[in-house]
Specification:
The chain has about 60 residues and is mainly α. It is built from 2 helices and no strands. The longest helix is centred in the middle third of the chain and has 19 residues.
């Protein structure tokens, strides 16, 4: 699955497509790479939606 295609009328099937797409994109990544992937995708979504977070971005990494 190289490209995510969702319908104009977002449905439960689209949610399944998004989950499958993300699984395929991340299945061979390390935990760190997955975290970076989801962070990058979230930042991209927020920017495209014109959403500015009220609090600064923090790291979830623990020592």
């Amino acid at each position: 699955m190289n490209e995510l295609k969702i319908s104009d009328n977002f449905t439960v099937d689209d949610i399944h497509k998004v989950r499958e797409y993300n699984y395929e994109q991340t299945k061979n990544m390390s935990e760190k790479e997955r975290g970076e992937y989801y962070s990058r995708e979230a930042d991209s979504f927020l920017k495209s939606a014109g959403i500015v977070p009220k609090t600064p971005k923090t790291s979830l990494q623990t020592a």
